TrEMBL record:
Domain spans labelled Acyl-CoA oxidase/dehydrogenase middle: 129-219
Protein name, UniProt field: Alkylation response protein AidB-like acyl-CoA dehydrogenase
Boundaries of every Acyl-CoA dehydrogenase/oxidase N-terminal domain copy: 11-100
Gene3D superfamilies, per database record: Acyl-CoA dehydrogenase/oxidase, N-terminal domain, Butyryl-CoA Dehydrogenase, subunit A, domain 2, Butyryl-CoA Dehydrogenase, subunit A, domain 3
Alphabetic keyword roster: Flavoprotein, Oxidoreductase
Matches recorded under InterPro entries: Acyl-CoA_DH_C, Acyl-CoA_Oxase/DH_mid-dom, Acyl-CoA_Oxase/DH_mid-dom_sf, AcylCo_DH-like_C, AcylCoA_DH/ox_N, AcylCoA_DH/ox_N_sf, AcylCoA_DH/oxidase_NM_dom_sf
Pfam families in the record: Acyl-CoA_dh_2, Acyl-CoA_dh_M, Acyl-CoA_dh_N
Gene Ontology molecular functions: acyl-CoA dehydrogenase activity; flavin adenine dinucleotide binding
Coiled coil (UniProt feature): none
Chain ranges of the Acyl-CoA dehydrogenase C-terminal domain: 248-366
CDD domains with a match to the protein in the record: ACAD
SUPFAM superfamilies: Acyl-CoA dehydrogenase C-terminal domain-like, Acyl-CoA dehydrogenase NM domain-like
Length: 387
């Protein structure tokens, strides 16, 4: 058991989940460079995750899943990310959405039960497709240009979505669209087999290349009436969503991997100008200490908030600020930690074969995951000054 987890693993189940995730992460670490270099979805990693039954971790027990807590979910995410950040972030979207749907009970119970059964028995994958080029992040309130129209008792969906993570591997897409007749915004559950559904390979990015967050094209896709799974009320926007803490957990996991690279390098690298490894150089020791202090601060904050979310459901409605600040602190900490790790390793960290350059690129993506820093700062300022 890593010394980084001795205070965080409180139960036998948490220890088991961490150990299982660590074993998977070690396999993912060996493949991470290739998937990043090729910008290819990590199908082999997801085959391993399916064999380990990880896709049903957040499915309720009544449907055959493990129904892990938010705290346990973050342990899994942070650990998997130490092997491959893109795999962890992709997994997190699926697991988090299932957790949120189970907690919020937004869907028709029979439909949700059917999807859960498929996840448990067949390890099916789902994710939402909400973003569009014209609207930007859904968190900023833009109305989808993708449309839904009722024809002969069926819904016809037409439009294009961006940032559709796991696009090549998904079995179901949860698509937001504006209903033409009423102007309402609703979510529709669309299977990958639907006629007119296509994936356009647009994902050629600096970081998180393996998520394959390609464009989803919907060319007058017809689905059954029950495909409308939720009407999105403007009044419900901005409600606290604990499951989104999978994002900071992922980036802190990448930062831990960078920290471990820096420590291993410092303990073994000895230039001929020194009689000892650079781990004995005061400035290197200061940087390593700064890395650990930053990680300690962010991780204790994140796990504390997750624990409060799990233990106090009645307080969840009041936790929007804390959840947003966890993401703000964690992602900015991850960027800082990777930067410090690269300063310890020096020029060698710039080589494309070195994992630190991948960590550097991947953690930058965290700044653009929801909520963005400016939204969090505005939220805190409004709460403090106007609340």
């Amino acid at each position: 058991m890593s010394e980084l987890y001795h205070l965080f693993l409180r139960t036998e189940r948490e220890k088991r989940l961490h150990e299982q995730a660590a074993q998977l992460a070690e396999q993912f670490r060996k493949r991470a460079h290739w998937y990043d270099e090729q910008a290819t979805f990590p199908f082999e990693n997801f085959t391993d995750l399916k064999k380990a039954r990880f896709l049903s971790l957040t499915v309720p027990k009544q449907y055959g899943g493990e129904e892990i807590s938010l705290y346990e979910f973050l342990l899994v995410q942070e650990t998997i990310a130490q092997g491959d950040g893109a795999t962890a972030l992709s997994l997190g979207w699926h697991l988090g959405l299932v957790m949120n749907l189970a907690q919020e009970k937004k869907w028709n119970p029979s439909l949700f039960a059917r999807v859960c059964k498929e996840i448990v028995e067949e390890q099916r994958l789902l994710n939402s497709a909400q973003s569009e080029k014209a609207t930007g992040s859904p968190a900023r309130g833009g109305k989808p240009e993708t449309t839904a129209e009722k024809r002969n008792g069926r819904w016809v969906i037409h439009g294009r979505k961006t940032y559709t993570s796991l696009a090549p591997a998904l079995d179901y897409f949860i698509v937001s669209a504006t209903i033409k007749e009423t102007g309402e915004v609703a979510n529709f559950l669309i299977p990958k087999s639907a006629d007119g559904l296509k994936i356009e390979e647009t994902w050629n990015t600096l970081g998180m290349r393996g998520t394959r967050s390609d464009d989803l094209i919907l060319e007058y896709v017809e689905v059954e009436e029950e495909a409308l799974v939720e009407r999105l009320s403007p009044q419900k926007k901005g409600q606290p969503q604990g499951w989104l803490l999978h994002i900071p957990a992922c980036y802190l996991g990448i930062a831990i991997a960078a920290r471990n690279e820096a420590i291993a390098f410092a303990k073994t690298y000895q230039p001929n100008s020194l009689p000892h490894p650079i781990a004995n150089v005061p400035e290197v020791r200061r940087k390593i200490a700064e890395i650990d202090i930053n990680l300690m601060t962010a991780r204790h904050f994140m796990y504390s908030i997750a624990d409060q979310w799990d233990r106090n459901p009645e307080k969840r409605a009041e936790m929007k600020q804390e959840l947003a600040v966890v993401k703000y602190v964690a992602t900015n900490t991850a960027v800082k930690v990777v930067d410090l790790a690269m300063r310890v390793v020096g020029g060698q960290s710039l080589f494309s074969s070195h994992p630190l350059q991948r960590y550097y690129r991947d953690v930058r993506a965290g700044l653009h995951n929801p909520p963005a820093d400016d939204i969090t700062l505005s939220l805190v300022a409004n709460h403090t000054l106007d609340g």
